[in-house]
Specification:
One of its GO terms (cellular component) is phosphorylase kinase complex. It is built from 21 helices and 13 strands. By secondary structure, it is mainly alpha-helical. Helix 5 runs parallel beside helix 7, helix 8 packs antiparallel against helix 9 and helix 12 packs antiparallel against helix 13.
C-alpha cells in the first residue's frame, strides 16, 4: 500500500514540467493578447475621437461619428479589457482599454444628454421628429444632420447602448457618475419601452424596404428593446456601491407587450421585409431576445436560406444599398425601383462574424469552422499586415444581367472600404472580428463577454444580490397568490357568513393597499430631473403584471389592486358580470405572462356597492372557487 501511494505521487520532475507548461501557456496567452492589443490600437483606438470618445463608420471619416459603430467598437475594446484581466501584470494595457471603452460610452451619453428635450417630448409623442440622433460631430459631439436630412429614429441603437451599458457595469466598470445621468438613463428606458408600437427606420436607417422615407414596425428593434428592458431592469447603475435611487426600474407590462409583439412577428422582420439579417444580432449575440428554440431556429434558418451568399449575407431582399445600379446622389428610391436590385444585392461579410460568435455561444463547433473558412476567403491585409474585412461585396456592372438570370453564378468584387492597403477600414467589421477572434482563441470566455448571461434562458441566469427584481422566464409550477381585501369591516363580516375570509386595509398594515392610480403617481417621480427638464414616467396606467408585484416605496410595503377595481363613473363599471369576467381574464393573463422571479400577488378589492348588486352571488361563487 505504501509503495502504491508513493508510485502515484508526482515526482519533482513532473512538478517542474507542469510548472513549465503553466508558465509557457501563460506566456503564450500574454503574447497573443499583446498581438490583439496592437491590432485594437491600430485599427480601432487610432480612430477614436480624443474629445468625444466616439468612432466613425469608416476610418477616413473626420467629421461624422456613428453611435451604432461606436457602441460595437467600445464593445470590442471592452472585450479585450476583459481578456486582459486574467493577466497578472499587463503593464497598464487593461486600464487603458477599459477607460477607452468608458470614454466612448460616456461620450455617447453626453451627446444624448444634450438632447434631453427630445427624450421628454418623445415619451409622449413617438415620432421621428423628436428622436435621439444617431450621428454626431466626431470632434464636438454636436448634431450634424437635421431630422429632414437623416432618419434618426432607430430604437435598436438606444437599446443596444443600454444592453452594453449593463454588461460593462456588471463587469465592474464605472460609467455612470451622477444622479442626473441615472435620471437620464431611466428616461431612455421610457424612450424604448414603446418600441412595439413605434415605427422606426431600423438597423439599416431606411425604414421600409422600398426606401421611400416611411418608417415601419421592425421585429429587430422590438427585440432589441425587449432585451434592453430585461437587461436593465433592477440594475444598479453605480454597481455594487449604489443605493436604491441609482436603480433602474422597468414597466413589466411594457416588456410583456414588446415580447408578445416580437415573438408574433418572428421570423418576419416587418410588413415590407419578409426576412432581414438584422434579426441575427437580435436573436443571437448581443441581444439574445428570445430563447424559444423554435422561433430562434426558424428565424435563423430563414435568414440562412434566403440571404446567405458566398461572400456574406444580403441585408434583405431587393436591398439596393451600395449596388452599382443605385443612384448614390438620390436619397429615396422611385416607385418600383427596388425590383432592379433583385438577386444583385450586396453581400456583407460582417454577418459571417455574427454567425461565428453565435456558434461559440451555442457550442456549435461545425458552424464556427464553416463560417471561419468563409470569412477567411474575404480577409485582406492593411499596410501594417493586420487582417481587415471588406465592408461588402458587389456584382460588377458587366455581370449584373448574368447574375439576375442565374443568382450566385457571378464572382463579386470587394468594396474599396476594408479591402486593405491604404483603403479605409469599416470599423464595425473590425470590432466584431476582434471579438470573434478572442472567443475562438480561448482568450475570452462567453461569460466574460456576456457577464449578465443574456445567452442563457432567464431561469438559468445567476441571481444578482443587488437586483431589485429580475426576470426568470416562465415558471412551470407558477402559483398566483390572491389577496381578498374587503372595503369595510361590515363587508368583511358579511363575507365571513358565506365562509369567505377577507381582510380589511387596516388589518394588513403595515402593508399598504394602493390603487393603481396611486402607483402611477409614484412612477411619475421616477427619472424626474429639473436640470435636464425631464418629467419622469408618463401618466400611463399600470397593467395587470405591474399591479401583481409587491413594492417598497419610501420604506413602506405596498400592494396594488388592478385597474379593473378603480372607481369610475362609466356605466360598465357597475356591471357585475363584466367585473367577474375581467377578474377571470386578469388571473389567467397574470398566470400566463408572469416572467419575474417570485410569485405574483393579485389583490381583489371587494366594495360595498358590489354587495348590493343583484349578481353578487356570482361574485361569491367566484370567491369560493378561488378558495379551492
Amino acid at each position: 500500500m505504501v509503495y502504491s501511494s508513493i508510485s502515484h505521487s508526482p515526482s519533482m520532475g513532473d512538478i517542474d514540467i507542469a510548472m513549465n507548461l503553466k508558465v509557457s501557456n501563460y506566456e503564450e496567452t500574454v503574447r497573443q493578447l499583446d498581438i490583439y492589443y496592437g491590432i485594437v490600437k491600430r485599427q480601432l483606438l487610432r480612430y477614436q475621437s480624443p474629445t468625444t470618445g466616439l468612432f466613425p463608420v469608416l476610418s477616413n471619416e473626420e467629421k461624422i461619428a456613428s453611435v451604432r459603430e461606436s457602441i460595437y467598437c467600445a464593445a470590442a475594446v471592452w472585450s479585450l479589457f476583459q481578456a486582459y484581466r486574467r493577466i497578472d501584470d499587463d503593464r497598464g494595457k487593461s486600464y487603458e482599454l477599459g477607460q477607452s471603452a468608458v470614454k466612448c460610452m460616456r461620450g455617447i451619453l453626453e451627446c444624448w444628454v444634450k438632447q434631453a428635450s427630445r427624450v421628454e417630448i418623445f415619451k409622449k409623442n413617438q415620432t421621428s421628429k423628436y428622436a435621439l440622433h444617431c450621428k454626431f460631430h466626431l470632434v464636438t459631439g454636436d448634431a450634424v444632420f437635421s431630422d429632414d436630412e437623416y432618419s434618426h429614429l432607430q430604437i435598436d441603437v438606444v437599446s443596444v447602448y443600454l444592453i452594453f451599458l449593463v454588461q460593462m457595469i456588471t463587469s465592474g466598470m464605472q460609467i455612470i457618475y451622477t444622479q442626473d445621468e441615472v435620471a437620464f438613463i431611466q428616461n431612455l428606458v421610457y424612450y424604448v419601452e414603446r418600441a412595439y408600437r413605434t415605427p422606426d427606420f431600423g438597423m439599416w436607417e431606411r425604414g421600409s424596404k422600398y426606401n421611400n422615407g416611411t418608417p415601419e414596425i421592425h421585429a429587430s428593434s422590438i427585440g432589441m428593446a425587449k432585451s434592453a428592458l430585461e437587461a436593465i431592469n433592477g440594475c444598479n447603475l453605480f454597481g455594487e456601491k449604489g443605493a436604491s435611487w441609482s436603480v433602474i426600474y422597468v414597466d413589466i407590462d411594457a416588456h410583456n407587450r414588446n415580447r408578445s409583439i416580437f415573438e408574433t412577428l418572428l421570423p418576419r422582420e416587418s410588413s415590407s421585409k419578409g426576412v432581414d439579417v438584422s434579426l441575427l444580432p437580435t436573436v443571437s449575440y448581443p441581444a439574445f431576445a428570445t430563447h424559444e428554440e423554435f422561433l430562434c431556429s426558424e428565424t435563423k434558418n430563414n435568414i440562412l436560406r434566403r440571404l446567405r451568399g458566398n461572400n456574406g449575407f444580403k441585408r434583405f431582399g431587393r436591398d439596393g444599398y451600395k449596388c452599382v445600379l443605385e443612384d448614390p446622389v438620390r436619397r429615396f428610391y422611385k416607385i418600383g425601383e427596388t425590383k432592379e436590385f433583385e438577386n444583385v444585392e450586396c453581400e456583407w461579410p460582417l454577418f459571417f462574424i455574427f454567425m461565428i460568435i453565435d456558434g461559440v455561444f451555442k457550442s456549435l463547433p461545425d458552424q464556427v469552422e464553416e463560417y471561419r473558412n468563409l470569412l477567411t476567403n474575404t480577409i485582406c491585409k492593411d499596410l501594417n499586415g493586420d487582417p481587415c474585412i471588406p465592408m461588402y461585396f458587389y456584382v460588377s456592372e458587366e455581370n449584373i444581367e448574368y447574375e439576375r438570370q442565374d443568382p450566385g453564378s457571378q464572382p463579386r468584387c470587394n468594396s474599396a472600404e476594408g479591402s486593405g492597403g491604404g483603403e479605409p477600414l469599416y470599423l464595425w467589421n473590425q470590432a466584431m472580428f476582434i471579438i470573434a477572434q478572442l472567443l475562438i482563441a480561448g482568450l475570452l470566455h462567453i461569460n466574460e463577454l456576456d457577464p449578465i448571461r443574456r445567452y442563457l434562458p432567464s431561469y438559468n441566469r445567476p441571481r444578482k444580490v443587488g437586483r431589485y427584481s429580475a426576470f426568470q422566464g416562465t415558471a412551470t409550477d407558477l402559483v398566483v397568490q390572491i389577496v381578498l381585501i374587503a372595503e369595510s369591516m361590515r363587508l368583511q363580516a358579511m363575507m365571513a357568513t358565506y365562509g369567505i375570509q377577507t381582510q380589511t386595509p387596516h388589518e394588513v398594515e403595515p402593508v399598504q393597499i394602493w390603487s393603481s392610480n396611486q402607483l402611477v403617481q409614484v412612477y411619475q417621480r421616477l427619472g424626474v430631473n429639473y436640470k435636464l427638464k425631464l418629467s419622469g414616467r408618463p401618466m400611463r396606467p399600470v397593467g395587470a403584471l405591474g399591479t401583481s408585484k409587491v413594492y417598497r416605496v419610501c420604506g413602506m410595503t405596498v400592494l396594488c389592486y388592478p385597474l379593473i377595481f378603480e372607481v369610475s363613473e362609466f356605466y360598465l363599471y357597475r356591471d357585475m358580470a363584466l367585473l367577474i369576467d375581467d377578474i377571470k381574464t386578469e388571473l389567467q393573463f397574470v398566470s400566463r405572462y408572469w416572467r419575474l422571479s417570485g410569485r405574483p400577488t393579485v389583490c381583489l378589492l371587494i366594495r360595498e356597492e358590489h354587495m348590493r348588486d343583484p349578481q353578487f352571488k356570482e361574485m361569491l361563487d367566484l370567491m369560493a372557487m378561488l378558495k379551492k
